[in-house]
Write a structure and sequence with these properties.
Layout: E1 2-6, E2 14-18, E3 47-51, H1 57-68, H2 81-93, E4 99-105, E5 108-119, E6 122-129, H3 138-152, E7 157-162, H4 167-175, E8 179-189, E9 195-204
Parallel strand pairs: 6-7
Antiparallel strand pairs: 1-2, 3-4, 4-5, 5-6, 7-9, 8-9
Length: 209
């Protein structure tokens, strides 16, 4: 899947999602298709999302460290796992609208999502799923959990940033009701000196069911 993002000093951003040349179309929905290999077609029974606890902090940090190695998220390797674990423990033990959720496949934690209040009523979303667990509906399950929490805690908006070339993630966010609100060109300087742009996306919690 490819992304075309244009701002050209204009007051809007247009994003077009296209299948990459030679790419296959989406796999069947969960529960369809006999003999589907494990983890490749649809969601498996036993996969669930639950609210993270203090005891989950280290495994969430380890997942971030693993996904960071792929360059798909803003967090850069090497991740300070002990330091990130301690910050997560502090956040998970505190009261307030911020929180984290984890994606479990049986007894294994394979993904996480965090929502942090950056302004009154605005939660900023971050999400990471290990490679072998993607494309099976877990990302949407995590998103739905965060959006349900946002509605329950009275937030009016959930926002996020995503690399413009992460077509898979952008397609997931669009399907969940997010839209592009801006484009930060060459905004983030990476450790290797390169500059990365980011799309700003958001969903108004009180505008969609």
């Amino acid at each position: 899947m490819t992304i075309e993002a244009t701002d050209a000093a204009a007051d809007h951003v247009r994003v077009t999602l296209r299948p990459a040349p030679g790419s296959a179309r989406a796999t069947p929905a969960a529960g369809t298709g006999a003999g589907c290999p494990r983890g490749r077609c649809g969601m498996l029974f036993g996969v669930r999302v639950r609210r993270a606890t203090v005891q989950d902090a280290e495994v969430i940090a380890l997942i971030l460290a693993e996904v960071a190695e792929e360059g798909l998220i803003a967090t850069e390797p090497p991740v300070d796992v002990p330091g990130r674990t301690q910050r997560l423990r502090t956040m998970l033990a505190s009261e307030g609208p911020s929180g984290s959720w984890i994606l479990e496949d049986g007894r294994q934690i394979v993904g996480s999502a965090g929502a942090h209040e950056t302004l009154p009523g605005v939660l900023s979303l971050g999400m990471a799923i290990v490679a072998e667990a993607r494309g099976r509906g877990g990302g949407r399950m995590l998103l739905d959990a965060v959006l349900a929490h946002a509605a329950e805690c009275g937030a009016h908006k959930v926002d996020l940033e995503v690399w413009p070339d992460n077509g898979r993630a952008i397609a997931l966010y669009v399907a969940a009701g997010f839209s592009v609100e801006g484009f930060r060109r060459d905004h983030y300087r990476r450790r290797d000196g390169s500059l990365r742009s980011a799309l700003l996306m958001a969903r108004h919690v009180d505008r969609l069911p």
